[in-house]
Design goal:
single chain; about 475 residues; 12 helices; about 25% helix; globular
Length: about 475
């Protein structure tokens, strides 16, 4: 058996009609610098099957796959071998929407803590969003600073998005050449001053610059409709509502301030500009409003290259269950009603639907920025509200959904969240569906489908071992992210 000159390593036959100790395979000829994972259940090419997976310790690549469970004796002496049966071998998850915040806001999150939390939950690749770090990833210089900050701190593979902001259209092509996995812009205030919202003019410039580039243009799609009794003509500046109606600590007030129409109008605005770059894939991040689904479906039917993602929190949390003042649930777009959640699940399980991926949108902050009242703040894992007596001055402003930071922390918890929701509510989904939403399609979205999102020969040996029967309570030990 000879070495493959293109890889300088000894390949195993794949697929093999018989175990590798047959006449066509001589273990004494082999190099034992491999790891072997086996299980009676594995998701390969979107299907559940028995499998034995051989991974090179030198390259980290899958070198061979057998569609049966081989024994350790079928491989050279000293080979690292683990049979994980009956647990399921999955392609490592690709979380295509994570805020790691380093450099600049490392007290919120960082590469070491965020990627460690990802690895704990079977996420082997994260793609870092361009904002909340300082500087943002809106220039090549900003990207290089972020890459430098990540050196020696990553437990999993990390990719980076670029950002579109007013005035940086000339930076976009150079960022593609430097390897960013896509671009994101906001049509509404982002919450941080260094990443301002874009106008339709800015979007048009970005589309023109990226029209023929191998990338994806993504949007936080919220925008005030042109008819609004609270803002008048200010819609052109993409401002948030100016006057909430109702107590600021009531979730209903916050939800009413960012209605579904904001998402619908923003998506309509994006679609109206799609003709500028007809070959450029467009993507809506963290879709929460089902009212926008028909609009996206129609655009897809008309040939516009657009997809959407939703998030673990939209699929598992509902507005009806959020207590007043519980700002842990604040995110934008907001968590909506149970009926809206059911609509997201319905579209997600429609294989040809517009929602193709599920991501975390992990966006932590320091606890003080959440403004959580002491009568709600309870120890992780406790079964009851932690009641305390506090000075009224300390409680001033607490529970204000409009002043609290908006973001939900969940990187590394997505797989159990999805599976729990599916089992608890008897949703008709399979583990193959989860792989498609959280690995195969997310890898494709960021241009990594040639090496991630599946367990196949030549792909990265990123494997998640999933016990679909185990139960655990999320506590401090399981929440490895910083906040």
């Amino acid at each position: 058996m000879t070495l493959d000159p293109s890889t300088s390593r000894l390949p195993y036959p794949s697929p093999a009609p018989s175990p590798p100790n047959s006449n066509s395979f001589d273990p004494t000829d082999s190099i034992s610098r491999i790891s072997v994972l086996a299980s009676s259940r594995a998701v390969l090419e979107g299907k559940l099957t028995a499998a034995t997976i051989v991974i090179s310790q030198d390259t980290g690549k899958v070198t061979s796959i057998f569609h049966s469970v081989l024994s350790a004796s079928d491989f050279p002496p000293g080979t690292t071998y683990t049979d994980h049966s009956p647990h399921i071998l999955l392609p490592g998850l690709v979380d295509a929407h994570v805020h790691l915040n380093e450099p600049g806001r490392t007290e919120w999150e960082g590469f070491w803590t965020g990627t460690r939390a990802a690895a704990f939950g079977g996420v082997t690749t994260v793609i870092d969003m361009p904002l909340n770090a300082i500087p943002p990833t809106t220039t090549v210089a900003g990207l290089k600073e972020k890459v430098q900050a990540a050196q020696g701190k990553c437990w999993v593979d990390v990719g980076f998005y670029g950002g579109i902001i007013p005035g940086n259209a000339s930076e976009l092509r150079p960022l593609v050449q430097e390897g960013v996995r896509g671009f994101k812009g906001f049509l509404v205030d982002s919450g941080v001053p260094e990443f301002p919202a874009v106008s339709s003019t800015d979007i048009a410039l970005a589309m023109a610059a990226l029209a023929d580039e191998p990338t994806t243009l993504m949007f936080h799609a919220e925008m005030i409709p042109p008819v609004s009794d609270s803002v008048g003509d200010d819609v052109q500046w993409s401002l948030p509502p100016l006057a909430p109606v109702g107590p600021l600590n009531e979730y209903a007030t916050f939800l009413a301030s960012r209605p579904s129409s904001f998402e619908f109008y923003a998506i309509a605005q994006i679609l109206s500009l799609a003709h500028i770059a007809p070959n450029l894939p467009l993507h809506i991040v963290h879709l929460s409003a089902i009212e926008a689904i028909p609009l996206l479906r129609e655009a897809m039917a008309n040939g516009i290259k657009i997809t959407a993602e939703t998030c673990f929190h939209y699929l598992s949390l509902a507005a009806e269950n959020i207590r007043n003042g519980d700002t842990r649930h604040k995110c934008c777009p907001p968590i909506r009603s149970k009926s809206n959640q059911d609509g997201l699940w319905e579209e997600l399980t429609n294989e040809g639907g517009c929602i193709q991926t599920v991501v975390s949108d992990h966006s932590p902050c320091t606890p003080n920025l959440k403004l959580l009242p002491s009568n709600i703040a309870n120890p992780i894992g406790s079964d009851h509200t932690h009641e305390t007596t506090t000075d009224e001055d300390d409680e001033e402003g607490k529970g204000d959904f409009f002043s609290a930071w908006g973001g939900v922390s969940s990187v590394g918890l997505g797989l159990p969240i999805l599976w729990t929701e599916a089992c608890r509510n008897e949703r008709n989904i399979s583990i193959e569906d989860v792989v498609r939403w959280c690995s195969t399609n997310t890898a494709k979205q960021v241009g990594l489908e040639h090496r991630k999102g599946d367990l196949a020969v030549g792909f990265d040996g990123d494997v998640c071992v999933f016990d679909d029967e185990a139960e655990f309570e999320v506590g401090v030990e399981e929440m490895l992210f910083r906040n």
